[in-house]
Amino acid sequence: MINVTAPAKINLFLDILGRLENGFHSLFMVMQTVDLCDEITVDKGNGGISLTCSDERLPQDERNIAYKAASAFFKATGIEPNAVITVTKKIPFEAGLAGGSADAAAVIVGLNKLYGTELSTQAMCEIGLTVGSDVPFCIKGGTCIAQNRGEVLSEVKPLKECFIVIAKPEKGVSTAQAFAAADSTHIYHPDNLRMLDACSRGDFNAICKHASNVFEQVIEVVERIEIKDVMRSCGALLYQMSGSGPSVFGIFDSKEEAEKCVRELKKSYKDVFLTSPVNYGAKTI
Predict the structure, then answer these.
(1) How far apart are CA 9 and CA 219, in angstroms?
(2) Does 175 lie in the same domain as 96?
(3) Which of 1, 53, 151, 178 could covalently link to 43 via disulfide, CB atoms 3.0 to 4.6 Å apart?
(4) Cβ neighbours of 61 (radius 10 Å)
(5) Quick check: helix, strand or coil at residue 208?
(6) Active-site residue set
(7) How would residue 133 be classed by pLDDT, with cut points 50, 70 and 90?
(8) pTM
(9) What is the mean pLDDT of residues 214-219?
(10) What is the CATH number of the domain that holds 64?
C-alpha cells in the first residue's frame, strides 16, 4: 500500500487571456501549494479500479477525477487496470482549491510508486493533463507560474514563510459556470508583467500588491466582502478569492494575527483553515 499526501492550491494571480480553438481557456496564473492536504492510499486489488471516499457527497465511480486519473495512468503505461483507491477528504470541494485535481495528482504519483514505472514528473504531468488542467501543477507543487491550460509550468522563487487563512462559504462554485460567466463579460485584465517581475525576484510585498483574480469580476460570492473585511481588520497583507471560488484566502506575516482571523471567521463559517505554503505537490509518505 502506498500513502500519498495531496496539497491544496491557492491562486496568487489568475488572468484569462482568451479562448483556445480546442475550447479550453488560455490562462496566466501564479499558483501555490499549501499544507491543507487530502490523504490518498493506493494498493493492488483483484483487478479493475475501485474507489472509496470519506465524503459520501462525492461520486465513488468513474465520475470521480481520482478514478479518471487511475484509468489514464493504466492507459498510458499499458498496465492492466488494478487499483484500490481510498480518498480521505480534508480539502473542501467546489472551493477553488483544486481538491479534486490534488486527489488525481496523488493517484498518479501513488500508482507510479506502486507499480515501479519510474515515470518522470513531466510524464506524470502529461497523464494528469488528460483528466484536469490543474493536475500537472498539483503533481509539481510549490510556487509556479502556470500558463495556457495550466500545463506550462515555470518554477519561481518560493513564497517566503507566512501564514495563510482560507475560508470557504457554504455554497460551492462550478468551474464550468465560472468560465461561462467570464466568456460573456468584458474583463479588466490585471498587470501580468508586474506580477511576473515580482515573482521572478521573489519580492513578497510586490507579489501581495499585484495579486489579482479576474473571477472576482464575474463570480458573485455574497460572503466574500465580509470575509475580506475580517481578514483586513486582522492585518492580512493580501486577501482575495482562489480559483473560481468561493474560497477566500488571506496572507499574514504574523501567526498571532492569522490565528485571530481564524477565530473570528469560525464564528460564521465552518470551513476555515490556517495553513502555510509548501514547496511540494502530491508526494508519497
Answers:
(1) 19
(2) no
(3) 1
(4) 9
(5) helix
(6) 9, 134
(7) very high
(8) 0.96
(9) 94
(10) 3.30.230.10
